[in-house]
Amino acid sequence: MADPSAHLPDRFLVASAELREKVAAETPIRFTDEGEPYLALPTPFERFYLGPERHSDLPFDVAMMSDIRVAGTIVGPPFPNTFLSAQKWLLRERGFAEKLFAGYADGLFRPTAADSNPFSVLRERKGDGEPDVYVGQVSCGFREGPGGMLKRPVREGIESWRKTGSVCEIGAALNFDYHGKGIASVATKVVFDFAVEQMGATEIHAQLLLKNPASARVWQKLGLVEDESLRTQITMPEVKGGQVETSCVYIWYLQ
C-alpha cells in the first residue's frame, strides 16, 4: 500500500515569525531557527527536547515499537509495528500540530485548539554536526466517547477555560538504551504540565501493566494514583507471548 503520509514535508514548520513570537510569549513552546516548534526539557536534560513527529522518524518509531523489550511492557500499539501504522500515526500527529497552530493564529491559547499534544517525539541533540537522536514517544490527548468520561466530578470554582468533558490520557515509550536514566520522568513531566496548563486537563489517566513497576514510578512522581477498581485482565497477543496480564490505570485529579 502507498504511503498515505508521502505528501507531508519531513518537518512541521511555522513560517510566520510574528506567530512564533506570539506563541513563545504566551506558551512554553520554543522554535528552532528553521521554525520547528518544540518543548525543552530542564537541566540537566537540556540536550533533550519534545517535538512534532517527522517523516524521517518513522524507521526509528517502527524499530522501537517492534522491540519486544519495549513493546512487551506496554498495552498496544500493534506489535510488531509496521510502516503503514507509523505513517497513519504521522498523519494524525501532523493534523494535531496544524490544528494547534491554526488556533494560535486565531488567538486560541487556553485551552489549546488541538485535543492532543503534538510534541510527542523525544529527541537528543548531539551537536558537532551530528543528527539528533530519536529517543522515544510521549503521547497525551483527550479521549472521546464513553471511555473518556471523567471518573470524578470537577471541583466547584474551576477555571472556566478548562476542558471538563473528557479524560486526558498520557503514555510513554522510550528506546531501550534510554531506560533507567531518569529521562522518562522528566519528559513526561513536561508533557503533563502542558496538558494541565495549556490544554486544560482536569483528569489524566495512564494505563500500564502491573508487571511494569518502573512505569508506575514515573506516573506516581507526577501525582497519579492507581484506581484499583479499574484493574482488568487482558490476554496479550501471541506475538507478545499470549499470557494473561493485569492492566492498571493511574489517575491524577485537578485539586
Automatic annotation (TrEMBL):
InterPro entries: Acyl_CoA_acyltransferase, GNAT_dom. It comes from Mycena chlorophos (Agaric fungus). Residues 129-224 form the N-acetyltransferase domain. This is N-acetyltransferase domain-containing protein. Coiled coil: none annotated. Signal peptide: none annotated.
